[in-house]
Amino acid sequence: MRARFKRLEERVAELQSAGLARTLRPLFPTGPTTAELDGREIQVFSSNDYLGLAWELRSSWRGRGAGSSRLIAGDRNAHHALEEKLEELFCGPALVFPSGYQANLALMSTLFEAGDVVASDALNHASIIDGLRLSKAERRVIPHGDPSAIPKDSTAVVVEGLYSMDGDQLSLKEYQNKRRWLVVDEAHAVGCIGPKGRGASYEQELVPDVVVGTLGKAYGAAGAFVICPWELKQLLISKGRSFVYTTGLAEAAARAALVGIERADHARRELLASRVRRFRAGLADLGRFPPGKDHIVPLVLGPSTMAAAQALLEEGFFVPGIRAPTVSKGQERLRFSLSAAHSDAQIDALLTAIDKVLR
Ligand SMILES: Cc1ncc(COP(=O)(O)O)c(C=O)c1O
Fold first, then answer.
1. What's the pLDDT tens digit per position in 173-188?
2. Is 69 among the residues known to form the active site?
3. Is 165 found in the same domain as 97?
4. Cis peptide bond prior to 325, omega within 30° of 0
5. pLDDT exceeding 90 applies to what percent of the chain?
6. Which of 9, 91, 98, 250 is 20 to 30 Å from 204 at the Cα level?
């Protein structure tokens, strides 16, 4: 026992000495974009609450946990009402999951079989990577944004609608080909981008074969969904291990998500777009031109990232520093997430702080 414990201790020490130990920081929200951290009021530019709904929905959490897998005693009217709402919005069968991570595990390991060759963009989220690892398919990682690297024999390609660390969209039509599946994870885009907030693919006038979306980011609640052909939905219900062998999405979360989807309207998306324009224009005035055009704004600073994040925090702005292994070495960055709930004054104050810290 002592030797095993010692091994744990050594591993923690290794992480700490490499500067890679992650820490949890309790944050107490005091408003849609403000919080108390270590006894100080801070402006939050790090949440995925892109439409400011999470704060608004706090009184919509009514109901219980599901109590068991949906296949045992955990299937609720709230799940079906939510799936109907999503089916109406995305015009295809929908299945909800307790989280996006679980949705991707089930989807990748169910859709792909031995003999499949799946091209996966190099910057795809960990849940896609892990799902593909669980499947018996062969995974071929292709350079980010390079559709010419898709192997000729691939049976599927998996990409994201809006990349969560780079803030960019791919040119999705170049990934589409009738001979293979196109799966687009729209976790950071649904609610915010495209007609009716259906994501980057719809903004680019393309309907993927399968869409993954989350309910815990722009929709302000928790959970996730997959939009897919009817047959795949049936397979996910029967064979998707992270759907079958887990407690269903909490009824309370499903109800909150329904309200979130209803409130994620055009006016909110317009407001978010105006915040994004203001922030990106302000950065351009400071001589900084981050990639993308949407609400995730990365500033790649390399090794000085964590010091810059700390300096911004001292100025009262909570912006995460993203470092290896989440991004590759040398690509460390500040990741700003904008919300429709930010005020112009907050954005201007942030720009002033960035100018001071990065000058
Ligand atoms: C692209 C992508 N897919 C899936 C997920 C997982 O979603 P969830 O947080 O609901 O587990 C994330 C989370 O950030 C993500 O960025």
1. 999 998 999 999 999 9
2. no
3. yes
4. yes
5. 93
6. 98
Q: What 3-state class would DSSP assign to 210?
A: strand
Domain count, the chain: 2
Active site (annotated) includes residue 166:
no
The helix/strand/coil state of 165 is coil
pTM value is: 0.96
Is 47 known to be catalytic? Answer: no
The pair of structure tokens assigned to 324 is 């290896």
Residue 278 belongs to a domain with what CATH number?
3.90.1150.10
Q: Ligand 1: distance of its center to the CA of 203 in Å? A: 20
Q: Which residue is catalytic, options 60, 164, 242, 339?
A: 164
Q: Residues lining ligand 1, judged by CB closer than 6 Å?
A: 99-101, 104, 125, 127, 160, 164, 185, 187-188, 214, 216, 224
Answer whether residue 1 shows pLDDT above 80.
Answer: no
- pLDDT for res 94: 98
Q: Which of 49, 50, 108, 127 is the pocket-test mutation for ligand 1 (most atoms within 8 Å of CB)?
A: 127
C-alpha count within 13 angstroms, C-beta hemisphere, residue 274: 11
Task: Select which of 46, 48, 104, 109 is catalytic.
Answer: 48
For residue 342, give the nearest of 56, 30, 32 by alpha carbon.
32
Tokens representing 154 are 């691939």
Distance 352 CA to ligand 1 centre (A): 31
CATH code, domain with 229: 3.40.640.10
Active site annotation includes 188: yes
One domain, residues 283 and 250: no
